Each structure stands twice: as structure tokens, then as C-alpha cells.
Amino acid sequence: MSHSPKNRGQFTSSLGFILASAGSAIGLGNLWKFPYIAGKSGGGIFLVFYLVFVILLGLPIMMSEMAIGRKTQLNAIGAYRKLDKRWSFVGVLGVLCAFVILSYYSVVGGWVLKYIAAYATGGNFGGDTSAYFNNFVSQPWEPVIWHLVFMALCALVVVMGVVKGIEKVSKLMLPALFVLVIVIAVRAVTLPGASEGLKFLFVPNFAAVSSLKDLGNAMVQAMGQVFFSLSLGMGITITYGSYLKKDSNIVKNTGIVVGLDSLIAILAGCAILPAVFAFGFEPSAGAGLVFTTLPAVFADMPLGTLFGLLFFILVLIAAATSAISLLEVVAAYFIDNFHWSRKKATIIMSALMALIGVFASLSMGPLSNIVIGGMNIFDALGFFTDKILMPLSAMFMCIFVGHVWGVDGITEEIETGAKGAFKVKKAFGIILKYIAPVLILVILITGLLPS
């Protein structure tokens, strides 16, 4: 049971789609995860592997998901069911992944709102940014309130629809994001000593991967980051692709979205790592890089409070555009398959995700004694999506496209709206049939191995 395409809404222009899709991809994965994983994985070596896997995995998988969405004009589950109902479980994995990710992603979005409020009121972190962050996240009420505010803002946009909500907000927020990241990157690279950070990011240091284990780890981290950064295996590109007009150019759209996402990730590295090096901090500070290391950097920087405020506004824009797309994936399923109104689907699903997010937030404080596989609730949710759901969804998608629907079938859809033949059809087919599934399987197995 599903809606007809005419009742679902469509992006009004290719620009609207590109900005919305780029917004879905450009998120905390670029501004939070990319710099600290690059810092932990050898800098320049990691960047080389990352760019290779963007081309080898990111482009063909995103193109395939976009084609599946446009072909069927349905949500992730409905799309697979329409093409071959035996494979609808792949769509289920994607929608479930989006649901679980937003449940804890919105908690981090709440942290960003808290830091914006802190910088807007003077940026006083008491001299110890680590203690400030740890004290904040372990509180029972304040992080939960910020999490609920963030989720409510995202729900408001999705309730407004594809054109008036998602497309309109993306057209405002993405240009603002680009301006902010460039301003902060320019400030960072002009700091005394910043050249060491740029050297770390762009010049491969083979001493950082002196063993095969280190080299393999950098490769796997790069592959995993490509999936997280491009929002692959989450049903987002299928859902947004379903709002595309039939004459849209999938090859061109995919290239622009992937290019913009990679550019922002690199600019984020330029905004963060030079500043970290300039003030003598460790680039391998881990997940706390944004919330503990950078506030310490801004505290030592001229006009640091202003740049701290601008930076966290930048992170908020990135987090919000991704969160909106995750919520749309889940809402679209209930709109298509159960004929729920957009308002009903958005409110009910965002309320359920917000509830799970409350437990994720409390797991760093009052519920820290609840342990799942050695992890608190927040970390366990992240492990479930990043290490299991996302790679499984993407791997089965490649198998489905390469061996069930067939390369000829998807190529025909890709060529619809494209000017001229799909010239890399043979390479595209080999990647989807053989290379991508094997590489994703490596990510899956490595992610499940004890560290």
C-alpha cells in the first residue's frame, strides 16, 4: 500500500535537490568526525585513502541509491519492494538505521546548541574545557532539554514538507555553512604555527603507518568515514532521489553532492587541525576534539569567543541539515505505506526518537550504570548503526543492484535525464558487483572485531 508519486512532493529544481542532498551528507561526520579521525589515522595518509574510497565506493553507491529512489518514486522500503519484494529487507535496514542514528545524533545536536548559548553569553568555560563538557553531559536535565529543542526544530522543518521545508531551509543554510567554514578556515591557517597542521593534513607521513596493522587501520577508518560522511546505507539518498524529476541528471547531481561533501570535510580539517597545532594540542584528541580541544583553542585565540560562536553555528547548520534528512527517511515510509499525513508521521516518529535520545543522554550521567556489550546506551546505539546497520545496508544494496536488478537496469535509469551514454558503465558494474561488497565486508568484519 503506497501513495502515488503525485501526492509526495518533488524538489522544484536541481539546485534545491543538490543543496538538500549535500546538506544531508554534510553533517557532524564532516565537522566533528573527519578532523579527529584524520588526527588519529595519520593525517595525510588518511586523506589519500579517503579520497580514493570516495571515488571507488562513495560515487557509485550514492549514484545507485539515487537511481533506485528516482526509478520507484518511493521511500527506501517501498523502493526495494517495488523492484523486488524479496529485497525489501534492505530498505528496512536503511530506515531502521536512520531512526536509530537520529535518536542519538540529536543528543549531540543538543550539545551544539548548548555551546552556542555558552559562547553567545561570553564563552566562559571555567578554565578547564574537559571538565566543563563532562559536567554538562553528565547532568540529568540540561542535556535532555537541549536534545528535545534540537529534535523539535528538525521536526518543524520536516512537517513543512519537501519544498517549503527541506528545500527552502537547505537553500538558506548551505550557503551560510560554506561562508562560515571558509571564514574559520582562513582564520585558522593564518595563525602562527598553523603550517604544521596543514602539513599534517596534506602531506602523507609514512612514519604514522609504520606497520601493516596501522596501514590497514587507516584504510578501514577511511572507508568507514566515507560511508558516514556521505550518509550511505541510511535510506537518505533513496528517499531524496524519490523526489527527483525524471529529467534530472543523476551522474551530474551525484558528482556535485560528493564533491561538495568532500570539499567541506577538507575545509573542516583546514579549520580545525591548523588551530590545534598552532596552540600545541594533540590532533588525535578523539571525539572530544570539537567539544573540549577547540574551546580551549578559541580561549587562547584573539576574538576567540566570536570565532567559537561562529564555529558552533557552523556545526549546528551541518548537524541540522543531516538530522532533517534522517527524519524525512523515517517519515516518508509512514506517509507512503500507511497513508499518514506528513504532520502525523513526523510528530509520532520524532517523539519516539526523542524518547530514545533521552535514555542515550542520561546514559552519560544517571543511567551510566546500564551497560550493553561494555558500552553505555549512547555508544551502543552508535556501534549498532556505524558498525552493523550501515555497512549491511550498503553491502546488500550493491549485491541487489549488481546481481538482482542488474547493471543494465540501473544504467538505463541513470542514463534517463543524462546527456549521452553512461561512459563508465563497465567499471561501475565491476565496482558494484565485486569490489564494493568485498570492501564493505572488510569494514563490517573489522568493525565487529575487538579493538
TrEMBL record:
Bilayer topology term: Multi-pass membrane protein
Signal peptide: none
TM spans (from-to): 12-32, 44-68, 89-107, 144-163, 172-194, 222-244, 256-281, 301-334, 346-368, 388-407, 427-449
One Pfam family here: SNF
Assigned GO CC terms: membrane
Subcellular localization(s) per the UniProt record: Membrane
GO-annotated molecular function: symporter activity
Keywords: Membrane, Symport, Transmembrane, Transmembrane helix, Transport
Coiled-coil spans in chain: none
UniProt superkingdom: Bacteria
PANTHER family in the record: TRANSPORTER
Family in the record: Belongs to the sodium:neurotransmitter symporter (SNF) (TC 2.A.22) family.
Name this protein carries in UniProt: Transporter
